Amino acid sequence: MTLPRRKGLIAAAWSVATLLLGLAAIDRAAPPDLSRAATQTHTVEARDGSVLRAFLASDGMWRLPASVAEVDPLYLAMLKGWEDQRFDAHPGVDPLAIARAMDQAVSAGRIVSGASTLSMQTARLLEPRARTLLAKVSEMGRALQLERDLGKDGVLDLYLTLAPFGGNLEGVRAASLAYFGKEPAELSPAEAALLVALPQSPERLRPDRFPEAARAARDRVLARAAELGILTADEAERAMAAAVPTGRLDLPFLAPHLAERLEALHPRATAIATTIDAGLQATIEQMIAMRLPAADPRATLAIIVVDNATMEVLAQVGAWDYFDAGRQGMVDMTQAIRSPGSTLKPLIYGLAFDRRLLHPDTLIEDRPRNFAGYRPVNFDGGFAGMVRVREALAWSLNVPAVAVLDRLGATGFDTALADAGIRLVYPAGASGPSLPLALGGVGVTLSDLTMAYAGIANGGMVRPLVTLLEDGEQMEGTALMAPFAAWYLADILREAPRAGGFVQDGSARPIAFKTGTSYGYRDAWTVGFTREHTIGVWVGRADGSPCAGCVGIDTASPILLSIFDLFPGDNDPAANPPEAVTAMASARLPAYLARFDRGAEANGPEMSFPVDGARLRLAWDDGAAQPMPLRVDGGQAPFAWFVNGTPVSADRRGDATWVPDGNGFAAITVTDAMGRSAQAEVFVEIVGRP
């Protein structure tokens, strides 16, 4: 072509560009439609930004947002080298490319190559049109406008999100996950080249259907990258020898129950950042996939792993297999209300330690007892006789736990837990808290129970579990018990019996845990903690029917101990006892702590319920507040009760019942026949009063 002719073509190209610049100015009144880019796949992501679970976009596409900062720089270099070498220099339309295309078309009598820039391709992806000259001019105007409004990186972000890769895959992130199982920041040269090639003809080059065509297209990109110096000849040759994927992988599907719940709570969020550790989550899911939860073919399980310092949930398994209909795998059992078996016992003892009703060395009797018609027995049907409180809890004896709750007061216990955010749910028709809750006669979620045990690990301070990364700043907590009481629990629970196959001698790792098995073998539990982590495990059937072989120590505790093996650096939860513990260690127990069952030989009466400082919630029912029991131990009958100076009649045993007439503080006094008295001040709240 002659020089004058070339100059004329270049001038024509610049004229077109000038015209388009004018069109772009006019186009301000008609901004580009970005709705397609906004119709994205919602993702729930791990703390490192990797995908836990993705949800299809409303148009059925896997369209994951991607940005320049999130992809391999080599991929970007190859993309520009293949599609638009002057991308960083032109304003959205490349006059030199237009001139070259026009020259080639005139010389060959047909269109040989296009002049489409990445910006123009992005405009076409936003607003697909038929391939006409008018559409091309419109794309040029939009390209100029996009670059003016969004800048180079903004345009690339749109391309990386919208580029087609075959089937319902759009965007480089979706394609990278589906074809290689990795994020686009981790691409090899061969993988990057394939993803550069696919948008040219995404259906014809799909590697899962046409692997040879995909390989040929990839190799052409690699050859161009070598020509441009993006790769060396040796690097390109090695990349050409790499295999091409012949199928699509499923997108990540980790912590599906948590992801589903968070997506429902935040339906407008494109990406939800969680506290989940993707590597830990995957490891735990692989661990449980290799072992069925008990011998029951309908059994499932749930697991929560918590970082004690931050209360962040690092891993959460809602069911053994999400897609197992026989096990009702889609039900999130971390949120299901189930009977806790014996796992509330540490909380009962902890509150009793806190209120100085007990000490780990207090003697307590494990013998048949009748608590107003309630006669608990131990798991094995026998009784241990006189034991220390330490053994009573470590061996999970039932009668002592009920006796301690009787002294503590079931209503006060429920109130203390409720104030800390731990919700106990009572059976339909139940009048409220009662003694059977000590042995599992109540409902609780694995989430709440794990939170409670993390509170023990944190010195008695209970804080909410955190699952969203943005909520990572420590939330205010509630002191469920004093640090010395929490330490006593940790010291006792680290001596708990272990399942067969796990070390039980002095070389065992210091892990404090408690097992539990609900009535009828419906629920098997183990919740435990070290200094750094708390783990909760539940095993059972989702429908609440009896589960064959579901016993806490045999079924749930091996899972918990195996997960703790993933944290070999964790520290003893009972190291560094609080000052209150060390001060008491060398002292002789006072008489009132030496023996729990002191009876009438005690020096004077002791109010077993309510305890001083309790906050009590009483239900409003049938026009009056729920009656509150007043109970006394020790002393000598007869007894006289007074509430705010007003007498309250007592029964022959010495106990009484008081019906509050409003909210507020109440001063309660009991006096025995010898004139000895005990006092307590409590706060009463009547719930549901009109």
Q: What features would you describe in this structure?
A:
The protein is an alpha+beta fold and 690 residues long. It folds into three domains: 3-240, Biosynthetic peptidoglycan transglycosylase-like (Penicillin binding protein transpeptidase fold), CATH 1.10.3810.10; 345-584, Beta-lactamase, CATH 3.40.710; 599-687, Immunoglobulins (Immunoglobulin-like, Sandwich). It is 35% helix and 17% strand. The strands form seven sheets. A six-stranded mixed sheet has the order 17-16-23-22-19-20, covered by helices on one side. A five-stranded antiparallel sheet has the order 7-6-14-13-12, sandwiched between helices. The radius of gyration is 35 Å and the shape is elongated. The termini are far apart. The mean pLDDT is 88.
